[in-house]
Amino acid sequence: MFYNRIFYILSLTSQNLILYHGSKAGLVGNIAPVSRDRCNFGKGFYMGTERSQPLTLVCNYPNAKLYTLNVNLNGLNTLDLEVGLDWALFVAYNRGKMEPWRGTQIYRKFKSLSGDCDMIVGYIANDRMFVVLDRFFSGEITDKALVNSLSALELGKQYVALTQKACCQVDIIKTESFAEKELNLLKIKSEQPRFQGISAAEKICRLYRREGRFFDEIMEDEV
Fold it and tell me: Could you state, in order of their start, the residue ranges of all structural domains in the chain?
């Protein structure tokens, strides 16, 4: 039994967006889909809708750069993932959590999900969400606790260019560097919402701890 499809594929014909990308030491060469393999939506070039989000990921690095980007979505085949259990299971696949079930129907479903896409649009699994996701993958909380936690974390959206075609439609319009004092302020600023989000999610997890199914139960039910 598969969950209801809470994603859809669009062939966008006319749309430009301003997005942001953070880099620990600056981009070298042309923009390309070359992130590490185990990123949440697979290997690609990651961009966010909120300026502050990539800053929280790179503020610990002295040579960090923030890029403001103009992204042309014309003609790109785009997968739009709504937040929910399928979103979490797609992250699970890309982070290697489904490897014990390699070859099963549910594994093949999420392996092929983005196969024909140039761009994925989905909610960001930020550091606040990492905590909750890892608890779900390790069997500490149920799917119902996870899904209800998502709404408490105020996740922004990210766009991931999966193909070189998509990357060629990303233009850098501004590059920012930061002094040490600015980076330290960013670190402090990022901590408060992180702790608030984790605290809110923890309360929800306790509320639903006896409802729903655990990750391994979901995977075994689909075998």
Answer: 7-221
